[in-house]
TrEMBL record:
Top-level taxon of the source organism: Bacteria
InterPro entries per record: Epimerase_deHydtase, NAD(P)-bd_dom_sf, NAD(P)-dependent_oxidoreduct
Transmembrane segments: none
GO cellular component: cytoplasm
UniProt organism field: Corallococcus sicarius
NAD-dependent epimerase/dehydratase domain: residues covered: 3-205
Entry-linked Gene3D superfamilies: NAD(P)-binding Rossmann-like Domain
Protein name: NAD-dependent epimerase/dehydratase family protein
Family annotation (PANTHER family): NAD(P)-BINDING DOMAIN-CONTAINING PROTEIN-RELATED, PROTEIN YEEZ
GO MF annotation terms: aldehyde dehydrogenase (NAD+) activity
Length: 291
């Protein structure tokens, strides 16, 4: 398949590009800048110039493609929603594939319950606009729409866990927001990329997939592992939510959600079996650890 990946030089998008290439697909990466274009070209990926703010330009790019995998985000409804809508309108009636990257934060706090794709949504304020984009993805006529909701992504020494590892430099301990008693649902970046490949190749239209790896992990434990890997001996320190909000706003509220999920749907439907290291080991001695 000839597949356009938006966010192709990003954390998730870059891993998806590599996984799709390994699976034998022809990958085209959306590049907003010359630097992004050069990065893609150096990796042997065809680059096309585009910007999420240029909806007409995005729509024109998709006519010769078999699928679009959307991993890009500006975290702004004003930009993201019209961009997705323009591409879906361009694909309408073609029976081509569109995979949209949402996230587990659209479920809000699960209050100690293990939930799945069928659980009613109660989106965190930061992503309150995303359920509508999901519905547009799933409801556009003549489009094989698929939604993936990743947990907190880790691996390759990048992503949200770096907030913990980098805090050691300033505080001599890994600093977590809130009480640390909440649980993060997590997924290893390469396992997540594998799920995208399986979704593109096999998932029926209308599929929603929660992408998490094993049981959720208590944030205090994640922070302790980050501290160990960063050479701080497991020392951690709490950052009161009220103070964290002053710097991070609604992002802080998302990070203190207590969430637990089942990924059985992805496992049964697509045979997805995550194989990567757990987040605790990855922080202690893997890609995040001080060398």
């Amino acid at each position: 398949m000839k597949i356009l990946v938006t966010g192709a030089t990003g954390y998730i998008g870059g891993a998806v590009v590599d996984a799709l290439k390994r699976a034998g697909h022809q990958v085209v990466g959306l590049a907003r800048s010359d630097d992004a274009r050069n990065k893609l070209t150096q990796r042997g990926v065809q680059a096309v110039t585009g910007d999420l703010a240029d909806t007409a330009g995005l729509a024109a790019l998709v006519k010769d493609l078999d699928a679009v995998v959307w991993t890009a985000t500006t975290n702004s409804e004003a930009v993201d929603a019209p961009a997705v809508a323009a591409v879906l309108d361009a694909l309408k009636g073609t029976d081509k594939t569109f995979v949209y990257t949402s996230g587990v934060w659209v479920h809000g706090d699960t209050r100690g319950n293990v939930v799945n794709e069928e659980t009613p949504l109660s989106a965190a304020a930061l992503v309150a606009w995303r359920p509508a984009v999901e519905q547009r993805t799933l409801g556009t006529p003549g489009v094989r729409g698929i939604v993936i909701r990743p947990g907190i992504v880790y691996g390759k020494g990048a992503g949200i866990p770096t907030l913990l590892t980098s805090s050691v430099k300033d505080h001599g301990a890994a600093r977590y927001m809130g009480t640390g008693e909440n649980h993060w649902p997590v997924v290893f970046v390469e396992d997540l990329a594998d799920l995208y490949v399986r979704a593109v190749e096999k998932a029926p239209a209308g599929t929603v997939l929660v992408a998490v790896q094993g049981p959720s992990v208590k944030v205090k434990d994640v922070a302790a592992a980050a501290s160990e890997g960063a050479g701080a001996g497991g020392k951690t320190v709490a950052w009161p939510l009220e103070e964290a909000r002053k710097q991070f706003g609604a992002f802080a509220d998302a990070l203190v959600l207590d969430q637990q999920f089942s990924a059985q749907h992805a496992q049964k439907l697509l045979g997805w079996t995550p194989k990567g290291p757990g987040i605790i080991d990855e922080l202690r001695s893997g890609s995040y650890a001080r060398r």
